[in-house]
Automatic annotation (TrEMBL):
Record-annotated DNA-binding residue ranges: 120-223
Species of provenance: Candidimonas humi
This protein's record includes keyword Lipid metabolism: no
Record has Coiled coil as a keyword: no
SUPFAM superfamilies, sorted: C-terminal effector domain of the bipartite response regulators, PYP-like sensor domain (PAS domain)
InterPro entries in alphabetical order: OmpR/PhoB-type_DNA-bd, PAS, PAS-like_dom_sf, PAS_fold_3, Sensor_kinase/Photoreceptor, Sig_transdc_resp-reg_C-effctor, WH-like_DNA-bd_sf
NCBIfam families cross-referenced by the UniProt entry: sensory_box
Catalytic activity reported: ATP + protein L-histidine = ADP + protein N-phospho-L-histidine
Name of the protein in its database record: histidine kinase
Amino acid sequence: MPQPPYPDLMNFLLDAVCVVNEEGVFLSITGACEQIFGYTPEELVGRQMLSLVYPPDRKKTLNAVGRLMKGKLQYDFENRYVRKDGRVVYLMWSARWYKDKKIRVAVARDITDRKSKQGEPAATLPGQSSRWRLSSSPPCLIPPDSAPILLSRQDYVVLSTLVSKRQAVSRQEIVEALGHDFLDYDQRRLDTQMRRLRRKVEDACGLRLPIATLRGVGYHFYEDVEVQA
């Protein structure tokens, strides 16, 4: 197969072309990825897109994603993202949901300079915290001094059950919180979910999820957690 005449052309784009799956996880990024986000494509693939969104803009971003996945094309949606260096940038997006392929393709352009000339104040990050935080809206886990990690409903239920008590939580309590009958539940599913959740957190922020497995008992979240509505 012949190679394109300009194989590095994508590197000169002013925009970043992002492909994410149905859960909002980066599958690929081409174009001005590092210029816009401060991360290389390799650093972003596998991460939740929402984890980079400036916290006050997450709700409207989720609403826009909901409209997009119902078939509405997105041409000029604006929100703010937190770069790797901590700087907050304004982005303008055009996006489309491909239902048959279960992917979203979105093109981002940095419009921070334009916003500054229009008198928009520079956005800053809220004070960082040395504690783990669990939020219900949207469901996410916020590691110390790190961006939020978006959670599935099951992951949120498991974590909220664990942090509701200071002592160990039994497997039966977790299974029943998930809405299942303990005697009929395949225990391997819970082990698999916990391994996946630990890996998800470590991949996202480089920290170990502070949950201890207590053989014959259950699990214990052994660090203080701030629960946010």
